[in-house]
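for ur thesis appendix - MBL fold metallo-hydrolase. copy paste whatever u need, i formatted it the way the template wanted (i think)
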Amino acid sequence: MKVEQIYTGCLAHAAYYLESKGEAAIFDPLREVGPYLARAEKDNAKIKYVFETHFHADFVSGHLDLKTKTGARIVFGPTAKPNYEAIIAEDNQVFNVGDYKVKVIHTPGHTMESTTYLLIDENGKEHGIITGDTLFIGDVGRPDLAQHVVSDLTEEKLARHLYDSLRNKIMPLSDDLIVYPNHGAGSACGKMMSKETTDTLGHQKQVNYALRADMTKEEFVEELLSGLTPPPGYFPQNVLMNIKGYESLDSIKKRAIRPLDPHEFEAAAEETGAVILDVRTRDEFTSGHIPRSIYIGLDGNFAPWAGALITDVKQPILLVVPEGKEDEVITRLSRVGFDHTLGYLKGGFEAWKGASKEFDTLTSVTVQEFKKQYVMKPDAKVFDVRKASEYNAEHFEGAVNTPLDYFNDYLPQFPSEENFYLHCQGGYRSVIAASILKSRGIHNVIDIAGGVDAMKKSGLPLTDYVCPTTML
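the 3d part is after this line
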């Protein structure tokens, strides 16, 4: 059967391409539709359907642009209520794609409209299931997202629906089916997803905690909800965009790819209150950056961090970006709903300095320098911006955990007078955190370059978790 996974690592996202006899279908596409159009063109195929497993929270889907560009029909599962034309399929309804069949299996739980698609080949053999966020490899979808859009859909109610969907709809299927999930490790849509992006259903029944055969519904709900952290702030905003519709990415790019000289850039920032987002490397930002700009490097999990830390997707944004990367940055922002980029600094940061504009730097020390300074002042405060699970596994003794995922909640806790240190695992997140602090006028921050990775290499002693020190 001709089914292809199209994986995007920075979002840990998987879309799927299905083709038979010149007809194609796309499942859960990303915002930019060019790769799907090119894939179908390679097969000389026409995209007939765009199947959506649910209203996504962690990205804005490309279903509407695909419909506009190809005439494809959008398909949702039962109970979905989009604000645009789409097929709302019935449970067990079958769609034909060439000689293949796609059967709708309504699997509420992650959300109420969540749907799994059973793929059946030209010989009538069941091949695999495209599960969306219902079933991952090693995990299942978190049931606490829909309540941020519909308040009476509590996480307990959805968890119970998910238990029933898994037991009554998924687990009775054949063990040799291939599971094709919407996400892999690194996504915030689950707790413990595997790095593997496909598996057989039979193997998942053996190793996935949520598919344990003797698990009661109460045990399932308790285990599923245990350890859930709050979802990123942009999730409910993306859900609404996917329900209500959105502006074409082509229009957004046309407006956003706008070069501004340093004087125009500065004026735009002052007039609009735009966030200045610097996407260069850590070293470049540390050495010099526009005052009050926020660093989120393009070489990391750029879009998810932008979504987690910029609280409103309608926030105007101005970019400091390496030459030639403008289109990529705007696309990656729009993937998570940030459609209000106003332009970018023409000539980059060097042009800013060349115009004799004021700039700032970030103090950063090596682990060796930190050790010397800490011996001189052992009461200096140290903050660890990694996730709680990372901190619990090992951390610098005395460091306080202030996870970057929810960094805006911790801002009042940082000292405004005395110097303090900040670190993460390898240096990416700590520079993001430091830039946020400096944008709020807290300049007495010192970044520990290389973070825990460098500490371990230098022999700096680390301890495991003893007692809660997270500041709220």
